[in-house]
Design the sequence.
């Protein structure tokens, strides 16, 4: 028992201590649970990069050079090799990853901004459903397209000025001359408008009806009427037809932008961000406007000058073009778009408007200093951008010359203002380089023939004519071999695009020489004194007509750019008609075949074509003069006695079996065509020109071999008097026909 008590007493203190300690700990835990939770402080993480001194001391380092501790104690702060220098941040992998992330972030920001704009504007883009956007040019919409030529054009309050190389200037001279001679009632110049005088009255001017797009909404952006594949095809077509001549844009970048645009549109439609049923304001950023103009030009080329979708594409960017023209601040990157606008107007038969716009672009080039080497190199430091600016400037220079000759109005860029040391495009653009040299010769020819005298010069500068002709021939020889027109014996290996450039350069050489020699045809006396020169210009005109006829029969190049090629045709036709009437005995047997070849091409003219309207104005004027000069119906009773050569020529022109009624039908009292109840088309104009040609030759005793049996009595002096013709004195016919030049 004692043992038990001892044992108990021995254990008791320990047990008491243990119990007391446990009770105290439980009380502390209970108190701690009742109080606020206690947070234990944690040490900061060690920095991954530390200097050697901080590592040795095992203390915190901020990773700077020097770090905070070493800097305070003036200690040498060093880091272990491969710690900071040559680390991951300096590696190529890090830089590539960083660049990729930055690019992705920029794209995300752009997408986010576009999405916000879509939400705020309520579908400003107006995407049509993909089924509607798949419409191509080969599948026109149900509503018949409105020809741009038939759209409302207000009549000018004042007659526009036209220079001595234009048609309107020469026509005014002829009318003034006839007025002074006592011939009244020739009418007032209507200008080259859609309501030119034609065999039937033009419809009254009315405002155009609202345009319909592929899905019936006139407010939808017209670019969505074309599919993505159609967009790419039209861009490739533009490059083949225009881009290789005037390289003002990079077509690959345009196609890339268009591809991204269509991809974004599909994504927006798929995500529901775009409302297919709601109209939109359209896409009008600079690159998209350039894309639209490329598409507009291509569709107009496909439509031979008329395209509804092309017109709507242009209308969608017209406000953007006006803003650039009126903006006080000019940027080089905006000029290619304006060049495209000018090209579009030219192929819509609006050459005066094209001349006006390209003149504005030329003046902008001068403002930017692109015409001087030093200012160009200061303004554009990047080599690639400078090369683009050089191509742009020289393209504007060539187009300025081209349309100035067409309208008869002066150049905007004068050769004296252009730095002789200004770089020209590289040899990868042979056509543009050749045309620069051609345009410089054109400047000299302009000064030679651009006289504002109302009457032709009495004396010809034979030395100047010979010198300019020599320069033109040397230019033709300098054309690179790949752009030389192959001879009949050589192989035809060039592509369609290169062959078109070859024929264009060949025709331009002929045209420049025609302009140089044309003053020889001013009168019959001038032809007699310079018969060799007159024969030269006639042969050039005949060669041009044969080349165009062959081109039309063997390729589709002529039909694709009829506006461009008809310039050469009309000029050559006028030369042949002028020479045959001023000197019929000498030239009519030589020219008759080519004359009817030209009329065969005229038959293909559209009655809505600007060129056909210009030709009709000349035919109408000659028909008005004829009766007043004695070519009336009573002189035409023996019109059925045409010789065999005339009948063969008529058969060539597609007129065999049609009665040539002499002047009884060609010169009616009202100056209208015999079948004037229908619009004047190419076939009718061919018929009218045939009547005039045969009448003129018959009056000189050439058509059937005798004057008595011809259309009119011979003038005093007989057929050998080359100074007279069926339509008046020495120079009167030239003044009238000069309208065709």
Sequence:
């Amino acid at each position: 028992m004692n043992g038990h008590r001892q044992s108990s007493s021995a254990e008791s203190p320990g047990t008491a201590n243990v119990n007391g300690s446990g009770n105290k700990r439980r009380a502390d835990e209970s108190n701690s649970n009742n109080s606020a939770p206690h947070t234990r402080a944690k040490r900061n993480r060690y920095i991954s990069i530390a200097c050697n001194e901080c590592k040795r001391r095992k203390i915190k380092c901020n990773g700077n050079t020097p770090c905070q501790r070493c800097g305070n104690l003036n200690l040498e702060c060093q880091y272990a090799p491969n710690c900071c220098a040559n680390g991951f941040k300096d590696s190529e992998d890090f830089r590539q990853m960083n660049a990729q992330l930055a690019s992705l972030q920029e794209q995300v920001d752009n997408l986010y901004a576009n999405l916000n704009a879509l939400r705020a504007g309520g579908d400003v883009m107006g995407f049509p459903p993909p089924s509607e956007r798949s419409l191509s040019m080969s599948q026109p919409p149900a509503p018949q397209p409105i020809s741009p030529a038939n759209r409302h054009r207000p009549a000018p309050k004042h007659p526009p000025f036209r220079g001595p190389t234009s048609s309107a200037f020469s026509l005014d001279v002829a009318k003034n001359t006839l007025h002074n001679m006592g011939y009244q009632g020739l009418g007032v110049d209507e200008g080259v408008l859609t309501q030119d005088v034609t065999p039937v009255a033009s419809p009254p001017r009315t405002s155009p009806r609202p345009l319909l797009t592929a899905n019936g909404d006139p407010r939808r952006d017209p670019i969505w009427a074309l599919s993505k594949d159609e967009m790419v095809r039209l861009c490739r077509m533009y490059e083949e037809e225009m881009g290789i001549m005037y390289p003002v844009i990079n077509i690959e970048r345009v196609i890339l932008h268009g591809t991204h645009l269509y991809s974004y549109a599909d994504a927006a439609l798929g995500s529901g961000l775009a409302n297919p049923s709601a109209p939109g304001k359209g896409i009008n950023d600079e690159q998209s406007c350039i894309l639209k103009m490329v598409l507009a030009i291509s569709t107009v080329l496909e439509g031979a000058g008329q395209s509804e979708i092309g017109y709507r594409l242009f209308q969608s960017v017209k406000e953007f073009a006006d803003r650039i023209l009126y903006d006080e601040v000019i940027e080089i990157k905006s000029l290619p778009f304006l060049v495209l606008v000018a090209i579009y107007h030219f192929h819509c038969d609006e050459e005066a408007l094209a001349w006006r716009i390209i003149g504005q672009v030329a003046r902008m080039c001068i403002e930017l200093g692109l015409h001087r080497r030093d200012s160009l190199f200061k303004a554009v430091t990047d080599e690639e951008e400078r090369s683009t600016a050089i191509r742009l400037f020289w393209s504007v220079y060539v187009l300025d010359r081209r349309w100035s000759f067409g309208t008869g109005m002066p150049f905007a860029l004068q050769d004296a203002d252009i730095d002789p040391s200004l770089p020209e495009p590289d040899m990868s653009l042979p056509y543009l380089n050749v045309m620069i040299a051609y345009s410089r010769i054109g400047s000299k020819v302009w000064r030679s023939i651009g006289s504002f005298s109302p009457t032709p010069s009495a004396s010809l500068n034979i030395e100047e004519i010979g010198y300019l002709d020599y320069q033109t021939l040397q230019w033709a020889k300098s054309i690179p071999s790949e752009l030389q027109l192959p001879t009949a014996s050589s192989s035809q290996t060039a592509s369609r695009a290169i062959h078109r450039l070859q024929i264009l350069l060949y025709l331009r050489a002929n045209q420049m020489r025609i302009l140089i020699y044309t003053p020889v045809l001013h009168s019959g006396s001038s032809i007699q004194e310079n018969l060799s020169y007159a024969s030269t210009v006639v042969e050039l005109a005949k060669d041009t007509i044969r080349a165009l006829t062959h081109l039309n029969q063997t390729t589709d190049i002529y039909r694709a750019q009829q506006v461009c090629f008809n310039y050469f045709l009309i000029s050559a036709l006028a030369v042949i008609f002028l020479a045959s009437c001023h000197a019929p005995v000498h030239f009519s047997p030589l020219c008759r075949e080519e004359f009817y070849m030209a009329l065969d091409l005229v038959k293909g003219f559209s009655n809505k074509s600007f060129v056909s309207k210009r030709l009709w104005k000349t035919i109408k004027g000659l028909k008005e003069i004829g009766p007043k000069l004695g070519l009336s119906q009573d002189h035409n009773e023996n019109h059925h006695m045409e010789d065999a050569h005339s009948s063969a020529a008529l058969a060539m022109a597609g007129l065999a079996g049609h009665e040539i009624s002499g002047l009884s039908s060609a010169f009616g009292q009202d100056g209208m065509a015999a079948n004037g109840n229908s619009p004047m088309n190419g076939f009718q104009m061919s018929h009218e020109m045939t009547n005039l040609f045969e009448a003129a030759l018959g009056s000189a005793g050439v058509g059937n071999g005798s004057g008595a049996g011809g259309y009119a009595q011979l003038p005093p002096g007989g057929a050998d008097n080359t100074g007279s013709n069926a339509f008046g004195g020495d120079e009167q016919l030239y003044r009238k026909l000069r309208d065709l030049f």
